[in-house]
Amino acid sequence: MNIDQLNNLIRKRRSIFPPMYDGTAISDETINTILENANWAPNHKHTEPWRFKVMKGAYLEKLSKFQGDFYKTHTPEDKFSEKKYEKTIKKPLQCACVIAICMYRDPAQSIPEWEEIAAVSCAVQNMWLSATALGIGAYWSSPKSIHAAQDLLDLKDGEQCLGFFYMGNYKGADLPGKRSPLETKVSWLK
Question: What does residue 89 show for φ and ψ, rounded to 5 degrees?
Fold first, then answer.
């Protein structure tokens, strides 16, 4: 890969949402490739804090029910929207898979927690770039329900869920990207 190919891949990455997915499966082999790339993320002191829970098939129905039940029980009656509820339960069912993005905190707490979260975020970026290269749509969501997902995800002591990575094949044109000019964010100190 040359720098132009890398630049193109990075700048092509977008959040592709479940309504855009075409309903076709993603093979376990492809998912493993994406997760293997995640496993090569940088991390301080080699703590490798990322953990992933891959939900496919009938388990997506469990996620759908979990999300719907959470919305119903945690939304005040005056804020409840039937449309949002329907969207919440439909979203996982539109996916080929959903990967719970989890972090296992180093028991010795040898590094600050933010560094562990940053390492998991780097792993997710590797997943996202891999999905983009494979033509797979993806996006990272962090609904409030992740803080109540211990049983759904069979989280172990020291693990916490940081979000859901929704994935699905899609057929569509590349979406335009938006970024403000780099010059507004960089100061050169010479």
Answer: -80, -25
| Among 100, 96, 101, 99, CA closest to 168 | 96
For the full predicted model, state whether its pTM sits above 0.85.
yes
The domains located in the chain, with CATH, are: 15-56+95-171 (3.40.109.10)
How do residues 56-76 score in pLDDT, each as one tens digit? 999 999 999 999 999 999 999
Element (H, E) at 168: strand 159-169
Tell me which DSSP letter residue 148 carries: G
Residues 6+ apart with CB under 8 A from 101: 50, 52, 120, 124, 140, 161, 162, 163, 164, 165
In whole angstroms, how far apart are CA 176 and each of 57, 102, 114, 146, 172? 32, 30, 31, 30, 12
Helix (H, G, I), strand (E, B) or coil at 139: strand
* Spatial separation of the C-alpha atoms in residues 126 and 120, rounded to whole Å: 10
